[in-house]
Amino acid sequence: MLTSRQLQILKVIIDDFILTAQPVGSRYISKKESVESSPATIRNEMADLEEMGFLEKTHSSSGRVPSEKGYRFYVDHLLSPSQLSKNEKTEIEGTFGQRMLEFEQVVERSAGILSNLTNYTSIILGPEVFENKLKQLQITPLNKETAVAVLVTNTGHVEHRVFTIPVEIEPSDLEKMVNILNDRLKGVALIELPNRLNEEVFSLLREHAEHYNDAFHYLRSALVDDKPAKLYVGGKTNMLMQPEFRDVDKIRSIMSMIEEERDIAKLLKTNDQGIQMMIGHENPFDALQHCSIITANYYLGNQQVGTIALLGPTRMEYNRVVALIEELSKNMTKTFKEWY
Amino acid sequence: MLTSRQLQILKVIIDDFILTAQPVGSRYISKKESVESSPATIRNEMADLEEMGFLEKTHSSSGRVPSEKGYRFYVDHLLSPSQLSKNEKTEIEGTFGQRMLEFEQVVERSAGILSNLTNYTSIILGPEVFENKLKQLQITPLNKETAVAVLVTNTGHVEHRVFTIPVEIEPSDLEKMVNILNDRLKGVALIELPNRLNEEVFSLLREHAEHYNDAFHYLRSALVDDKPAKLYVGGKTNMLMQPEFRDVDKIRSIMSMIEEERDIAKLLKTNDQGIQMMIGHENPFDALQHCSIITANYYLGNQQVGTIALLGPTRMEYNRVVALIEELSKNMTKTFKEWY
DNA sequence: TTTAGCACTCGGAAGAGGTGAGTGCTAACA
DNA sequence: TGTTAGCACTCACCTCTTCCGAGTGCTAAA
């Protein structure tokens, strides 16, 4: 167990290193109000903390730097989420005070706020669209060969897909067909659509007109939804301002990963409640070994639909960031609740 | 006027510098097959070329490096667009050989091809949506207060906007209303919609039901289209591989500009036919002073709708890039032509 | 247990010297 | 008159050394 002096010293070191990115020395710590001891005593304590794995040295005669274990201990035991500053409050209230009607808008602005206020990169994982329920289907012919199917879901999300149609289809037939489809498919989850089409609707359509065999085939392909959850990224260039990422190669691997989307999306997809943190090697990706990721989920009603995350160096302002993310996920959840 | 030997030397220098990013010396040039003279002669010519402003030295005893004027002369007079390589051909044909139905898909893949094959950053400016003509309008109520308006245009583009509705509206009334709107607004350009609504439709709606005063107001706001043309960017991280952009600050200003979108969009918006090039300071933005931008337009029918561009260092493989962009803009134009 | 003192370590800045790729200039040559 | 060989010169870059200072660990005294 750590003594209270060790706790204090560890906290001072991490707090200071987060601010300056410079190794912290014993003399400097001794001058802090919160610590009374002399540099020599502090050196002894630091040596102990290093032995326990909470601190590291960059070279044999340098000051101390937090290890990943140190950060982990810090966020688990020493973290006191800070109050939001006036500036932060006004920015959040200014945005969520406005009436927003579109999901994308809320998410995009949230990502913007998060990256603006932190100088880190914000990543928001959107909802899995395929869980949405169909509210209305519309098919609009574009020319002789193609038509566009538009699906509006219960959450106000709009999907569209262009597909080929058999030449023979008549406008009036099409209308009939769309009516049947709407009648039978309303309320069905998008991912279920192709199946439902098979079971119920096919026979029904067949009764009402010819040539539906072909049409059916094409329509079905149009209704298959294989789009992954969308990723909203804010402040991509913020990473370039962090001193630990002055190295172009490091930055490139991180940015490639963000651009790739797939791995990041997988990483963020959790169902856990509250704030989650991954510090350095706690995530499996080489590119993110010097990064920390803080995530929180947001909800639509009681259902968790997406994740809001912040990507920064392991030397992250955890206390500020945690407060911010908590506040934002609350605001998002609240906004969505008002809609439904 | 330049002698043919000077032309040859200039070409060798630029070709080589584009490949290696290293200053080119006289001894090296003299060993090239295409040049017969001795290093001393070449030095004399190089001194002349420098005096004329086509070459520069990085320091007093370094080899020569092309100046922006040099590049400009090169692309104007020495450029022989290269044949596409087998690799390039298969990648393009592989993509455009598939049947693609959606505009976004074509543009996104084109951007992908361009950045993959070049290691530069590709930027494609989408069409101005507001010029599209309305094909079908649909309004779907989401809850008591909001509805989503979906607009399908003649190009298969789908726009949607959530808007507030007055509480009193009945489903059957809504259907009537949508029918009237579709009847009156089909074929109208999106940007014209709000006006048309004023002139013709308002009175018509009024005759058919009460409460349209309010509904009208909200609907109108939903039909205002202020979205700028969309930007499709591919290979954002490619810039980080160019040796001239090892400097994090340079990269940051370039990436911020791309992320910003507004200035880039303005820069790309041209009506000129054929390939356009901006070399270094020929563009007005500080961040892009060491970049070149090659653009070509693509067409929908005879109408120019968007621009396809490649952003790289001034030391760009102009001959390859020009051939590629030409080929791609042709393929895009052709694909779109088949649709309409 | 704490602290003062001291020798020690190491990164980083500054300077010196050497190397090599490249130049410009001059004078001889075809 | 244009071309070329020869040569002195320049400058980036590398390496080696030196010096400095911030910081350490250890020891012995308080």
UniProtKB/TrEMBL annotation, chains A, B:
The keyword Glycoprotein does not apply. GO terms for molecular function: DNA binding. Residues 104-322 form the Heat-inducible transcription repressor HrcA C-terminal domain. Keywords: Repressor, Stress response, Transcription, Transcription regulation. It comes from the Bacteria. GO terms for biological process: negative regulation of DNA-templated transcription. Pfam families: HrcA. The keyword Lipoprotein does not apply. InterPro entries: GAF-like_dom_sf, HrcA, HrcA_C, WH-like_DNA-bd_sf, WH_DNA-bd_sf, WHTH_transcript_rep_HrcA_IDD. Belongs to the HrcA family. Negative regulator of class I heat shock genes (grpE-dnaK-dnaJ and groELS operons). Prevents heat-shock induction of these operons. This is Heat-inducible transcription repressor HrcA. The gene is hrcA.
